Amino acid sequence: MTSTPEPREAYRRRSERHGEVRGELEAASRRLGTVRFFVFLAALAPWVVAEFSAAVPDVVGWGAVPLLLLFGLLVARHRKLRDRLARAVVAEELANQGIARLDRRWDDLPDDIDPPKEAGAEHRWAADLDVYGRASLRALLGPTRTPMGRARLDAWLTGPASKSAGPANHASRRARPIGVRVGPNSAR
Fold this sequence. Notes:
Elements: H1 7-52, H2 64-103, H3 137-141, H4 147-158, H5 167-182
Helix pairs in contact: 1-2
């Protein structure tokens, strides 16, 4: 049976793993950028020679077409590589933020945890209880993956408790069947 690692250790491993991936992808991006540059220069050379040299036939300029197609393929591949690099950077940053939250290092967390427009400054207790902002409950909970997730979490933090949740409602749900069995007019 495998044991679950401690949160700090799991975040540390994720940060290291994504940092290594980031480094590899940055190096690959630099190499691919260099290749793209030289392919573009190689594609430009036949066109320039054909355009500016009267002794060279214009057909030589068409030799740039396959190189331009290759350049286009390299651009598409580089875009995908940069997308993967951006995801690795975000994943590494999220792992580092997880460690910062565990250590309560609020200065290492982003300051973009603002209250939703619905809550605003007029919300009765959000500011008093430090629900939003630096060193807040929302900062401690960490980032959400989607805008819908953020909206749901914000609704939970600033909205009223659900009528179907909580121990008081659980007790009243359990008492309801008892009242039905005993009856409203019976002496207790």
